[in-house]
Amino acid sequence: MSEDINILGIESSCDETAAAVVCNGRQVKSSVVASQVDIHARFGGVVPEVASRAHIEAIYPVISEAVEKSGVALGDIDAIAVANQPGLTVALIVGVTAAKTLAFALEKPLIAINHIHAHLQAAMLAEENVELPAVAMVVSGGHTSLFDCESALDLTLMGSTIDDAAGEAFDKVAKILGLPYPGGPSIEKAAKNGNPKAVHFPRSMLGKESLDFSFSGIKTAVLYHCQGQDMKGENRAASMSEQEVADIAASFQAAVVEVLVKKTQRAAKKINAKTVLLGGGVAANTTFRNALEDMCNGEGLKLLTAPRSLCTDNAVMIASLAYYKYEAKMFADLSLEPSARS
Length: 342
Ligand code: KG4
Ligand code: ZN
Description:
Blueprint: E1 6-11, E2 16-23, E3 27-35, H1 37-41, H2 48-70, E4 79-85, H3 89-106, E5 110-114, H4 115-124, E6 134-139, E7 144-151, E8 154-160, H5 166-176, H6 183-191, H7 216-227, H8 242-270, E9 275-279, H9 286-299, E10 302-305, H10 316-327
Parallel strand pairs: 1-4, 4-5, 6-9, 9-10
Antiparallel strand pairs: 1-2, 2-3, 6-7, 7-8
Helix pairs in contact: 2-3, 4-10, 5-6, 5-7, 5-8, 6-8, 8-9
Residues 14, 140-142, 167-168, 170-171, 182-185, 188, 280-282, 284-285, 312-313 line the site of 5'-O-[(R)-(carboxyoxy)(hydroxy)phosphoryl]adenosine.
């Protein structure tokens, strides 16, 4: 029997400081996430410098806790993996510096991980044999991307957002409606009591063949709706009834979900996909999960979705994907730098 490979994963690309130990790419030995949501809620969004400072404070305790909980001695960790792109550079640098320091001190290989690709790994965690080809979709606060997936490490971008990411649109619309940050869960909660057909918001498809996304138009449409068509009025959201806010939230959510599902269907047809993989923070949305499942059932596609706990940022997905890079000996050296873009 081959030896177990334990990898320590580190994540600090946005507003979560996370560390996890995963054995052989699938067996989660520990997972620790320190969220900065409360800190950023005051500003209604992530402030990069504030995030960086919070990462610096959290990184050591989070890594220590993850190693301790895993039951694996630090010296027995086989490799250190870190998300080095894409994300906020001032945030990424904290995880990258910690990972490089550990790799150097422990004399273990360093593995660089693409955060977006890792989100998809969260969808593959439960399934040993994913039927290929697969269309893989990452929908988060920073990204809305469709990939042609040939393996965990072989992803070709098919389309992505040309302006706001879907999660970003949820966050901005929540702000317009006076709902708390982060906007995704707030909109989902408000939408439960709303009528998704109350307001018709635009569904931007960007042409018949396009696999790109655009969500800035719908955000502006919600703003128009709240300020009156001439945009000269005050934002009425504060004086709206709870029902009115719920109707707008439900109508907005329905429009975004419809676009996400239709584009996935389009991409799946294009590559004759057998499977659809879904990851990223917005994948936690129940209306979206259900709509995508209905589409997949209708098209005979198998849907693999990340478990809710691994939809938002975490380090399990980093350590898990790193296993495949470890096996392929795809190591980084100590000159590794963070990169805002992938
Ligand atoms: O993946 P993630 O934690 O961070 C990025 O890599 O961006 O995603 C966070 C995003 C936020 O925009 C948040 O509003 C959105 O995911 N989100 C949701 C839900 N939960 C989180 N959007 C819609 N419905 C949800 N239930
Ligand atoms: Zn993410």
